Amino acid sequence: MIKFLKTTVPATILALGLAGGWSAAQAEIRLGASISATGPAAFLGDPEAKTLEMLVAELNEKGGINGEQIKLVMYDDGGDANKARTFATRLIEDDEVVAIIGGTTTGTAMSILSVAEDAEIPFIALAGAIEIIKPVRAYTFKTPHTDRMACQKIYEDMGKRGITKIGLISGTDGFGASMEAQCKDVAKDYKIEIIVDETYDPKDADMTAQLTKIRNTGGIQAVLNPGFGQGPSIVTRNYHQLGIELPLYQSHGVASSGFIELAGKQAADGVRLPGTALLVADLLSKDDPQQPLVTAYKTKFEERYKMPVGTFGGYAHDALLIITDAVTRAGSAEPQAIRDAIEKTSGLAGATGIYTFSPEDHLGLDLSAFRMLEIKDGGWTLAE
Question: Which GO terms describe its biological process (predicted)?
Fold first, then answer.
């Protein structure tokens, strides 16, 4: 377990007119985070933790917000749902935070939200599964697109390419199982027929048997792999080793340079997946509403940490942005006021998309927030 105590909230992500102030009556605003900075989901959680630390440092250098200091109490749950639940309880009862950011994985997010809802503390999750915000819960929001949206974006692209019959190979972890179910559920809406459906354990080191079965099944025009972690990288390597030439689609759960490195540039070449503007910041037009923000975040992150920026850090970036914007507009850092203001957020440009929440929608993004990306020569490009 690690614990960070920092003064926080990002000036870099806020061209929001923060001088339009809140009450100075509260001397300190305490925000909490439970992030999977180590363990099997560290490739997700590490950039999230780094992002929060960077934004904290930047705000402190600028003197805080209207002279008010915000303390971020951050725990590393290692991807363990039980630890995440324990830390959520500690954040609320001992650290007395007014909002929580975290839930790097679906499992940890579901653990945190149960505690946050009971305590009526706003919680912004960083995981993708639709179950986090469906059904809508009063105090729970999230920044990543849902797995259902990822399926829809992929199927849209398949339709443009004349693909109607596919093979599915999914991880049996929480994310993989959830996205597999969502892809099956919406397939008929896009006239997609799933001819063969295979699965693998996230700890498996080889998926050749499943992919051989898919390859030998007639009529398939493309393959889709719902999953995250090392599994999709192994699938991609094995896919290349078997010489399968059909288009391969991955999920937004692997939208990072780490996926390309693990899979190998040659194997990953041509893979398509739905991703965020952040991964193609240098390709965005100057009139794109996300361009200034994602470019600034990318530049600062890469200069500070000497590593490529990624989708997952962007989720943490946006969670902090949403909370800060809400506190600013509410003029209060009381949990109920923050929750109410988040729900009224409209047209807020973040690294992941442009957020507009409502009582019926605690995600706030539509399919336009996804960009269909293709890996070429070891890098991200906009799919044509």
Answer: amino acid transport
Q: Is 168 helix (H, G, I), strand (E, B) or coil?
A: strand
The reported pTM is 0.85
Domains of the chain: 3-146+291-369 (3.40.50.2300), 147-275+372-382 (3.40.50.2300)
pLDDT tens across 289-348, in order?
999 999 999 999 999 999 989 899 999 999 999 998 998 899 888 999 999 999 999 999
Structure tokens that stand for 309 in this block: 């920026």
Helices (H), the chain: 42-61, 81-93, 106-119, 147-160, 174-187, 208-215, 231-241, 257-263, 265-268, 291-305, 311-330, 335-343
Under 8 Å CB-to-CB from 93, ≥6 apart: which residues? none
CA distance 85 to 38: 16
By C-alpha distance, which of 226, 137, 233, 215 is closest to 185? 226
